[in-house]
Amino acid sequence: MNAFERLESDVRGYCRTYPVTFDTAKNALQWDEDGKRYIDFFAGAGVLNFGHNDEGMKKALVDYISRNGVTHSLDMATTAKRTFLERFDEIILQPRNLQYKVQFTGPTGTNCVEAGLKLARKVTGRRNVVAFTGGFHGMTLGALACTANKLFRGAAGVPLNDVTRVPFDGYMGANADSLDALRRELDDPSSGIEPPAAFIVETIQAEGGVNVASQEWLLALQELARAHGSLLIVDDIQVGCGRTGKYFSFEGTGLDPDIVCMAKGIGGFGTPMAIVLIKPEHDKWSPGEHTGTFRGQNFSFVAGTEALNYFRDDTLLSAVERKGTVIAQSLQKMAEASGGKIQVRGHGMIYGLDVGDGKTAAAIVGAAFKAGLIIASCGSGGRVLKVIPPLTIEDDVLVEGLEILGKAVAGAA
Ligand SMILES: Cc1ncc(COP(=O)(O)O)c(C=O)c1O
Fold it and tell me: Which of 97, 305, 337, 397 is deepest in the core (most CB within 10 A)?
């Protein structure tokens, strides 16, 4: 029995799917301790948008440590935090005409979702929140109540209250308006439905199976929220930070969220950071009201500041568009070869290959891994293969990974 089986809790998950011990990694490649090379199409579930061990971030981190820069600071002011805030404002917010206050929370996605939900409830004085089928927002109780997956919800041990589940775009069929019933209920004073504190939505549901909401649906959702005095929370934790070809996934859609949750890629190097972006008029927190020991992870500020430099011009984002097309075309060929059994969904550099059932998807994941490709499944019953390589993946490595995937898919057909 190895150390992991002997000592680590049965809760461990991904190490069962990828049963090797990883040792080193560079951009979109990882090596296990026996020196076997893998192409990474998983990127830490959307953390490693800039790949493993980015040289600029590595240098900035080593320099910071060498000069005894403060590592831990709770939420005290540090030069590293100031630089991050100033660059975020200069490179991300100002050019997009966005005015948000930044709240640093505990460095996990689930903690910034908790903060966003608490704030929406505080601001509106309401309890209920609307979340969507297929939604994934985290594992702590408030966020878990918004998460749809049965396995995760079943582990709560307590009732998951104060959330109404509504069908996501497309859930009721391509031509149905999935917001129709809720809209009628909210408009009817005798429906028995109270207006919610907030709607929490992913513009592309990543864990939920790469379900892409249409612009029309997102705008209808925003209109519904505004009509009933509810806040719109966009969870951009997995599809923000450039994943869709824009910095924020909602850019260009006409969405103007009241609250935006960001984590994963924002820390740059895989160094953890999570933030809530809050419209200034909703920043109703009292000092210290949502606290957390690790709101001041300075390595994440240092690496995260370097990561922002990728967005000073459109080099990275136009590469995302280009590589996204390569992914889409390759997956489309796999779908065509399947005679309609396989469907492709996605945008930017997040794509899903819906192979119809979890057993087939698991077989493909296993075969791909043996052939040197790390890819994960998602969606209902795990039926969707999710392609989310680092945005910085080299073209030839991307093509090589897609070829491995194509063979694994063909082998499972
Ligand atoms: C959209 C979304 N929200 C929230 C979370 C939770 O983030 P974390 O696992 O860092 O708590 C995730 C994680 O996959 C996510 O994809």
Answer: 305
